[in-house]
Amino acid sequence: MSRFFSEKYSMLVPYTPGEQPKDVQYIKLNTNESPFPPAPRAIELAAAAAANVNLYSDPECRELVKRFSDLFGVTHDEVLFTNGSDEILNFAFMAFCDKDHPAVFPSISYGFYPVFAEINNIPYEEIPLKDDFTIDINDYIGIHKNIFIANPNAPTGIALPVEQIERIIASNPDNIVLIDEAYVDFGGESCLSLIKKYDNLIVAQTFSKSRSMAGARLGFGVANRELIRDMNTVKYSTNPYNVNAITQAMGIGTLESEDYTRKNCQTIIENREYTIAELRRMGFTVTDSKTNFIFAAHPDVDGETVYRELRKRGILVRHFTKPAIANYNRITVGTRQQMEALLYALRELI
Ligand code: PMP
After folding, report:
1. Of 170, 189, 198, 255, which sees the most CB atoms within 10 A?
2. Which of 163, 202, 166, 158 is nearest to 184 (CA)?
């Protein structure tokens, strides 16, 4: 830390992204990326957009918003595109939380939530999951705090039915409820349509997983127009050109390729179900994932050893040190070939 670093950040523990090693060619199953390239149309439009980056990008993302609204049945002022969905999460923390409006989220969930709370000086509470890693919605009914829930949750992969999410939203009318649907396209149920019914709901989604655009950074929030306006106030006070022109073009190309996205999601779901069945056959405890990752532990080999041994064999998965989940690893679902390599390595190791 330099002697110039502001004291207000001196205690900040930043989010730790998954490893992105460049030295060895690993089978990368550690950051929930798609194993499939972006849609060909997205690559084509990106190349055309690159020729014009002497000009600033459209701060309103008008063309992208138009395509999106047509496809998802929302109006232009009910959506806000961001630099990955991390940015819409940060905007929501900044816009709606403060010492009088603290945040709550599950104790085992996306590791960035407490970091967003810390950097914005927001008090927060982490609510434990049940022993089976599910969320008890009773913990959130009428809690009178701003609620952040990943659905499906990460790293557990477990999804809540929309009807249960709706009970949380309805019971907290004076607080915002942000549902982070980063993984919803792999079998979860979206509550996007509920934004017409509840003025306190924000749905966040990303192009990073199902739409193969992690490296281009595109996410979005959908909500009542007043909530979107508030988050735009934050956006225009921090980074008006938050989505660059190449990424906007890729987003448009990707939305023109919904069949491609659906086909890839279907392949991931099939590979997930196949791999989960094989892991269970080997004695692993595996949650019922509705995502593009698998959360698994073995009774005989501890989680860190599994992580290390896989790494030695050229396979990267994600291990978390939090005691409640230290025995588990989060394994991204890749191609069938990658899954076979994983299973081969695990059979050797178990
Ligand atoms: N939410 C959850 C639950 C995630 O796991 C991730 C991925 N790390 C994100 C949001 C953010 O993804 P991105 O910024 O790439 O959209």
Report:
1. 255
2. 158
Which fold, 13-37+259-349?
A: Aspartate Aminotransferase, domain 1 (3.90.1150)
Q: Is the CB of 153 within 6 Å of ligand 1?
A: no
Predicted TM-score of the model (pTM): 0.97
**DSSP character for 239?**
-
pLDDT digits (tens, 9 = 90+) for 284-319: 999 999 999 999 999 999 999 999 999 999 999 999
85-118 tens-digit pLDDT: 999 999 999 999 999 999 999 999 999 999 999 9
Decide if 309 contacts 344 (C-beta within 8 A): no
List C-alpha distances in Å: 26 to 178, 312, 334.
35, 10, 13
> Residue 79 Cα, ligand 1 centroid: separation in angstroms?
18
Q: Tell me: pLDDT of 245 over 90.
A: yes
| CATH 3.40.640.10 in the chain, residue ranges | 40-256
The tens digit of pLDDT for each residue in 129-179 reads: 999 999 999 999 999 999 999 999 999 999 999 999 999 999 999 999 999
Please say whether the structural domain 40-256 has been given the CATH code 3.40.640.10: yes
Q: Is the confidence at residue 23, as pLDDT, over 90? A: no
Ligand 1 atom having least distance to the Cα of 89: 10
Average pLDDT, the chain: 97
Cβ–ligand 1 distance for 105 under 6 Å, the answer no
Kindly give the distance from the C-alpha atom of residue 182 to the centroid of ligand 1, in angstroms, as a whole number.
6
Cite the residue boundaries of each domain of the chain with CATH code 3.90.1150.10.
Answer: 13-37+259-349
Which numbered atom of ligand 1 lies nearest the CA of 18?
A: 8
206 CB near ligand 1 (under 6 Å): yes
Residue 289: burial class (beta carbons within 10 Å; 0-12, 13-18, 19+): buried
3-state secondary structure 274-295: HHHHHHHHCCCEECCCCCCEEE
